[in-house]
Specification:
Number of strands: 11
Low-confidence stretches: none
Radius of gyration: 23 Å
Strand order of the largest sheet: 6-10-5-9-7-8
Shape: elongated
Mean pLDDT: 86
Helix content: 40-55%
Order of helices and strands: HHHHEHEHEEEEHEHEHEHEEHH
Strand content: 15-25%
Largest sheet: 6 strands, mixed
Number of helices: 12
Length: 303
């Protein structure tokens, strides 16, 4: 039964019988027959019938939710057994908001020193996708904002505080600036993250607080693209301290702390609050609780 549930989850992810079969390393008829056999065993229609995949029936959605729980519980159980015999092993799926991607290497580097047999799949996705994918057992852990959007059914571990800077070419501002009000940042043509990203919603909230409705010249969901546009074009941007720790110093660029209002947001690791818990998620949370994410930009400003 567990194998059939695995096929069903692949179909839910891929939304296509052929791609789901390829993901499971089986033929399409094998996957289709397994789904039909599951329907016969449960005496319900799981998949909407048609020449192409059209979705799940209401009963099928309930079966899918059950399959996610069963597969996740089995994987947690297998992780605990392997941990007892030979330490943690397996694959951990991590979803990370784009602005937090520079912190991942610090977390996984420390973790891998203690648990070298664990492998990882890291995806850059929005905070809302992280919440949804944790609920649907598509992720083991997430790295996301802890105090912005509602988080339910998860255990949280703070990692670092996110701060915001105005990034621009030196020729476009007074180099003696030690800080910049958000109102002045709005005077420049901006490249910002896309509206589906929480980082962008934080930026819009700051502009709203000073009575401004800003329309960016460019929107992107890529931090690297954002940085490249600022470096080579006439645009400026709102970036986080973690991005500034990632990029190499550029003599032509300057990053100025944004104030009035000063905004800080906590970013941390989240994992589902369920029984049995994932041993890998618990171990990651333990590492995160004692980890100091380097922040040389903010440290330099304090000095």
């Amino acid at each position: 039964m567990l194998r059939k549930y695995t096929y069903l989850l692949a179909l839910a992810r891929e939304r296509h019988f052929g791609r789901a079969a390829a993901a499971c390393n089986i033929t399409q008829p094998t996957l289709s027959n397994a789904i039909r056999n599951l329907e016969e065993n449960l005496d319900v229609a799981i998949v909407e019938r048609g020449q192409k995949f059209q979705g799940f029936t209401d009963e099928g959605q309930r079966v899918l939710d059950h399959a996610r729980r069963m597969v996740a519980e089995h994987e947690s159980f297998m992780q605990s057994i392997r941990e007892t015999n030979a330490g943690l092993s397996g694959i951990a799926k991590i979803g990370v908001i784009p602005s937090a991607l520079p912190s991942v290497a610090h977390l996984l580097g420390s973790f891998s020193q203690q648990h070298p047999h664990v492998r990882f799949t890291v995806r850059s996705i929005s905070s809302r996708q992280i919440q949804r994918n944790l609920k649907e057992f598509e992720l083991d852990v997430g790295i996301t904002y802890l105090n912005n959007e509602p988080l339910s059914g998860v255990i949280t571990t703070p990692l670092y505080e996110e701060r915001y800077f105005f990034l621009t070419q030196r020729s476009l501002v007074n180099e003696r600036l030690s800080e910049m009000p958000w109102t002045h940042a709005a005077d420049h043509p901006l490249c910002l993250m896309t509206p589906d990203m929480e980082n962008r919603r934080i930026t819009d909230t700051a502009f709203d607080a000073v009575g401004l409705n800003v329309t960016p010249a460019i929107e992107t969901n890529s931090l690297i693209n954002l940085y490249t546009l600022v470096r080579h074009g006439p645009w400026s941007s709102i970036v986080t301290n973690q991005l500034l720790t990632l990029i190499s110093p550029d003599p032509n660029l300057i990053a100025v702390p944004l104030t009035q209002p000063t905004m800080n947001h906590m970013v941390g690791l989240v994992h589902p609050d369920r029984t049995p818990p994932s041993p890998i998620a618990i171990a990651l949370a333990d590492i995160a609780s004692s980890l100091r994410i380097p922040d040389p930009i903010t440290d330099a400003l304090r000095r």
